[in-house]
Amino acid sequence: MLPLPLAVFVSLTITYKLERDAERFLNLAGPALESLAASCPWSCMPIVGSLWTQKAKRWTDFLIFSVSRTVFLHNTDAVVQLLKRCFTATLGMNSYPLSSNGGVGALLGHGFKSHLCGGICPVAPGILYLRVYRSVRDAVFLTEEILSILMHSVREIVSSGLPREKLEKLKVTKGGTKYGQVSLAASMTQVKLAASLAAALVWLSGGLMLVQLLMKETLLSWFISVHQSQMEEKSDGMVAMLGGYALAYFAVLCGAFSWGVDSSSSASKQRSHISGIHMEFLPSAIDGKISLGCDSATWRAYVSGFVIQLLGAVGEED
Fold first, then answer.
1. Cβ–Cβ < 8 Å for 246, 194
2. Which of 117, 178, 259, 294 sits 20 to 30 Å CA-CA off 248?
3. Residues 239 and 227: beta-carbon distance below 8 Å
4. Helix (H, G, I), strand (E, B) or coil at 178
5. Which of 221, 311, 314, 304 is nearest to 268 (CA)?
6. What are the beta bridge partners of residue 179?
7. How is residue 17 annotated by DSSP?
8. Residue 138 neighbours by CB under 8 Å, 6+ apart
């Protein structure tokens, strides 16, 4: 049932006599086995895992973890769900014990550990994504999915715990710091966290190539396109505004990860070229030469946040 290359590799490794240096053998054979399994049908790794478990029971947890990752290598929907879990864990927007407090600790957990509470411990979503992202065949679609999840997260941040009928009646207080029961400052902190995570995931998943695609095509297409979710939520001014700021932080952080903020660096020339294309889009849209499909509040917040971030970077450099 196994493809020939994988079957040969399993036959060679499973007959190897395990000595005290078995951990070194696992470190060598494990990654090779996973790389081969990534290009084989999804059912191959469970077969390999069942064979190896009979030979080395102390590797059961490692094999279970490796087998569980197989679905992400063959199913893009599973990858999208994993990305969503990364956001909900980081923002602390669910009741799952491992991620109830949010933050980096919930995203990465305590690594991969065994025999917690009598068995393999839950693996944090960030750790799982770090183990599977290299094997995702279509890295380009990740940019659009991460952008979509970021905007959905903004909605979740604002609505966090509020019924929809109350959310639609939120009003600004005299101090301008709250929309009903939702603190603008607290929401902005969460939005920045979500944008930071989104930028880190884009950079991790595709590096410079995905960042260039984001700045030259993906973001511009997003602003031009009409989004059904925004059409349904025209009354949610806070969602639209925070969405614009989230995109601004997201774009600037992606650029910082790729090209840095130092104009004397070797990447500064490339930064000027890519950011120049993006900057040409801004005045054209402001002047009405380009028709925008996104919410006007989102666009204004994006332009404001993007410019403020750029000016802040220039000021720090000076």
1. yes
2. 178
3. no
4. strand
5. 314
6. 172, 182
7. P
8. 76
Contact 251, 303 (CB under 8 A): no
End-to-end CA distance of the chain: 63
pTM above 0.70, yes or no: yes
Write down the H helix ranges in 109-213. 125-132, 140-159, 164-167, 184-213
- Closest listed residue to residue 91, CA positions, set 215, 203, 196, 190: 190
* Number of continuous H segments (helices) and E segments (strands) in the chain: 15, 2
d(C-alpha 257, C-alpha 186), whole Å: 25
Give the pLDDT confidence of 222-267 residue by residue, as tens digits: 999 876 665 555 546 888 899 999 999 999 999 888 877 555 656 5
Cα 221 to Cα 284: distance, rounded to the nearest angstrom: 14
pLDDT in tens, 183-197: 778 889 899 999 999
**Amino acid letter for position 215:** M
Angstrom distance (rounded) from CA 318 to CA 59: 54
Q: Distance (Å, rounded) from C-alpha 207 to C-alpha 213?
A: 10
Angle at 96 between CA 185 and CA 79, to 5 degrees: 90
| Token output for 253 | 């952080």
